[in-house]
Structure formats: C-alpha cells, structure tokens
C-alpha cells in the first residue's frame, strides 16, 4: 500500500508541475483551477497521511540557492571503493553458500544523506572517501531524495546521483555556441552536482538511487534487499537488484546484460553484496575495500577491424567532431561501423590513419569506442587531414585549444545550419510543410553531410541521391519514400509556408490570420507594422517580429528561393455563412467534444471564426468548459464583460 501511495504522489506531482508550467510559461491552461486544487489537496493529504514529502513536491516552496563555495565535510566513517572482478566464476566462488544481492553498478557520483526528525539535514559527496563536499542545497532538487520522511530517528544512507542518457543528450544539445559537449553522463553529473547554483541541478534532472542503508536508529533488519525496500517505502528511489545464490548468479548476470540496452541510466557493471548484513560486517575491511561486497565489471567484447575514413560531424554548439568509420563488426549483439573520437587530440593520440587495424569495443556495453590502434606506420601511410571547411555550411574551420591541451575543431559561422537544426525540424512539421518521413535524425544527417543549408534545399535532395542511399539506415526504398513526401509538399497553402519559415512568435493561427487578409506571396514580405496591427489578433510585438524577419536580406533571399520551389494553392474554403463567422474566440481548459484544442481551433477557422491566444477587448467569446473557474483568462473575460461559454454553448452558436 505505501508503494501505491508513493506512486500516486509522483503522478500528482508530475500532473501539477505540467499544469503550472503551461500556465506560467506558455500562458495556456491545461486544467481548471478547481481540478488543480483537487489534485493539490489530494497530494497534500497523502503527504500528511504517509509523512513523506517527495523532493520537488508542489506543496513545498523550496527556493533555489546560490553559494560561493561547497564546504568540505569529513565523513564519520571512511567510504571505501569495492574490490572488483571481470570473472564470473571468481564472483560465484566469492559468494560461496551465502545469499547475495545483485544490483546495477550505477555510473555517477556517490552521495551520503543524513536525516534527523524526518528531515534532510545534510548531503555529502564521497570526495576522496574521507572528506567530501556539502551539497545539501543541491540535494533538495535531486529526484529520488525526499524532503521529509515519516521515520524520525537518525538515518544515514548512501546512493548514486546521476543523469540519464536522455537528459544528457538534451543538455548537450542546449549548450551555448562554441561550448565543448560533455563527453559522458558522469562528467555532466559531476559538474552539475558541484554547481554553486542549485537551479542548474533542477534543470538537468539529476536522479538519486539509494544502494546502502548505513544507519537507521532503532531499525532491526538484517537483509540488504529488505533495507532497500524499507527506504523505498519512505519515498527514496532505490537501485534495482535481484536476490541470488551460487546457482542463480550467472543467470542473473546474463539477465542484466540483456537489460542494459533498456536502462536509461549509465551503468558500468554490477555490485554483489552479501544479503546478510551482520555477516558482511563481520568480515571487516582492508585498507582499500570492504569485504562485504564485490563489483563485477563488464568484460568488454572487442573486435578488430579496418579504419576506412575519418568523417567530420558538426554539432549545435559549433564544434566539429571526428568520427571513425570502419568495416562493420558485431559487438554486444549489434552491428557497429562508426565511433565518435570526440576531438583531434584523441585522434592524434591514437595515431589513426586510413587502412589501420583498430580494436573497437562498447563502453558500458553501449557506446562504441576505438580503444587501440594495432598498426605500426611507415612513411607511405596517409594521415586523415583535419577538415578545413565545415561540412554543414562550407565556412573555414578554426582549431581551438581548450584547457591548454585538448585540441578541437570549431565552425565560427553563426548561421551554420548545424547550429540551427530546430529551424529545419520546424519546417517539416505537420502544421508547416508536412513532409512525411523526415525525422530529426534524418535532418541532422543531411545537415552534417552538407545537403541542407537553407530551406529550399529540401527540394534539391534528389541531387544527392547517390550519397543518400549509402547513408546508415537508408536505401533505395527509404530514399523513394522520402522524395515522394517532399514532392507532395510542393503544392501548399500560403499560410503553411509563412508558418514554416519559423518567424519568432508567428504561430499557425497568426499565419492564417495574416494570409486571410493578404493572399499574395509578394505582399507578405512588404507588410508594415501598422498594417499588421490592423488585423484582429495581432499586436505590436508580433508585428515588429514579423517586419524584422523580412528586413533581414538573408531571410528574404531564403523566402524567395523557397517560393521558387512551390506551387501556392488556394486555402480550403471557409464557411462564411456560419453563426460564428467573423467572431473571435479564445480557448482555454480541457475539451471533451473535440479531440483537442487544435481540432476545435481548426473547426472555428474553417467556419469563418478567428482564434486568439489571449483575452482582449477584441474577443467575442471565451470557450472554457469550467465556466466558474477562477483562472486568469476567466477573470480577464469577466472584467471585460466577455461571455464565457462551454463547448455545448459554442455549438449552439452554429
């Protein structure tokens, strides 16, 4: 039962956080105030009932802290590293006839937590094992660390703080231009946890997984597995593991090996501990490691292959990374033909040349790595040249030294397409040009290879057919399907083209409003702010953004080049005789007669109405199924004496 209540609390926090983000950051409402209050009250009641307040709970107002330094803290007892092995039989012999607990060896930073009277009092990093850093302020924003627990005695536990692969990629993609990406999630977690601004910890989604209960005043429990279950009942995230014995150990290891590909959190092996806590403690410890546990490191499966080329991959941050391409080998059950080299220094250290025999493996059984160059060079071998121009934009590259030692390649062109992948991803969206089959990974590949430099290049991809069909994941059939999708998008409404340009703040609805008044493509580029604000639903800010976009010569050229590839068709016929023609609506809250608010918006526009994002004196009706809601839009509508109607009321207008 406690587990179900904790899961419900997590669910409620997620729902409330999503609603708050929509309301405060986008101005939209995804639930009524009454619904929000109902969920909030349920969460508060569960917290009072269980005595658990999860980290980041919506009932708490934990402010972000900025500190000048992280104080040093001496651990009350040394935090030692485990002895390790890659030999399964050795691990089985070590376990002997004892029961063991086998769990992930998570690859992050070890943190020790202390609670008193049910509240987190201190969080300390492992440091050198004897002295760590106080990161209590940051710990309050780590997922899996409850702010309050029902256990009132002194509690000490250890766990791993880390960042998942998904969030690792998200953070790297959002780094400022010219910033070297983090090489792996552990480096990112380390830098994040040592940040002096706790807001960074919250933004990067750090997670904590408890792996050991050190002390719990008055608790009598002699099983590692049961202790972790108890911590989970208090609201902690705990590491996943299995109880094993000598007979089941190998089978359990094989299960973890299969599951590692589904694990979003980095792991560099497994940990086996004696489940009997007292027995493990009786074994004592050496100078280097305790005797109650053993780390099992994955024995990397390696393969020798031939290096065929070094290609250069531009990134959103401007760095251009070398990638080794080699003859395909099978590693950990998958085919591998390339590995990221990260920077020029690594490439030079390996002394890589085309034709070399290299040894490759998968770090943590996931990330392909060139581990060793097995070729002795002679004078006839040609070393791959460092790219002199950016493959994405053609600009001259620059060599940069970071930290005084690491040599990286950088594209200085601010307008490099690789730095603006979002523009191309927006262009192909369903509400924009609706190019079917154009995934983000495909767009990135085309940008990296220099096929896409401006929007009109989508309509010239056939010129690169010979190269495209050889790309990883592509072939003749994939190519044909993609080209068919591109060709189908040439015949398009003008409002879609305007939206597809990605003009700041000019969404789909605003594009329709503008193109409902001005139907000539040449007119669009010459509109003034004064003309635009005369259109109902367009304010001064939107008008200025629009005019600034077309005042840029590069944008104007891209618009002209794009129009040359397209056939502008008449927009779908609008029912100007409907009961809502000429009326302006604002939609808020959940809908139930339509699939979603976008469908309702499309219906209004197809029947001659207009949809605005904010309530103003020009609004005719606010559609909100919760007519009595105290939301900001309802309050504004009441102040302006604008009718607030339900979906049923709206349909009656028709």
Describe the SSE topology.
Blueprint: H1 2-26, H2 33-50, E1 72-74, E2 83-85, H3 88-95, E3 100-106, E4 109-116, E5 119-125, E6 131-133, H4 136-139, E7 155-162, H5 165-173, H6 185-193, H7 198-203, E8 207-216, H8 224-233, E9 241-244, H9 249-259, E10 267-274, H10 277-282, E11 293-297, E12 303-314, E13 319-331, E14 334-340, H11 344-349, E15 357-363, E16 367-373, E17 398-402, E18 406-410, H12 421-427, H13 440-448, H14 465-468, H15 476-488, E19 491-493, H16 494-500, H17 508-517, H18 521-524, H19 529-533, H20 540-551, H21 553-563, E20 567-569, E21 584-587, H22 597-606, E22 610-612, E23 621-623, H23 632-639, E24 644-645, H24 647-653
Parallel strand pairs: 2-11, 19-20, 21-22, 21-23, 23-24
Antiparallel strand pairs: 1-6, 3-9, 3-10, 4-5, 4-7, 7-8, 10-11, 12-13, 12-15, 13-14, 13-18, 15-16, 17-18
Task: Describe the fold and architecture.
Helix 1 (2-26) packs antiparallel against helix 2 and helix 16 (494-500) packs across helix 17. The longest helix has 25 residues, at 2-26. The strands form 6 sheets. Strands 12, 13, 14, 15, 16, 17 and 18 form a 7-stranded antiparallel beta sheet that branches. A 5-stranded mixed beta sheet has the order 2-11-10-3-9. A 4-stranded antiparallel beta sheet has the order 5-4-7-8. Strand 17 and strand 18 (406-410) form a beta hairpin. With 654 residues, the chain is an alpha+beta fold.
Q: Could you please say which CATH topology of the largest domain applies here?
A: D-amino Acid Aminotransferase, Chain A, domain 1
* Helix-strand category: alpha+beta
Through-space gap between termini? 50 Å
CATH architecture descriptor name of the largest domain: 2-Layer Sandwich
- Rg is 30 Å
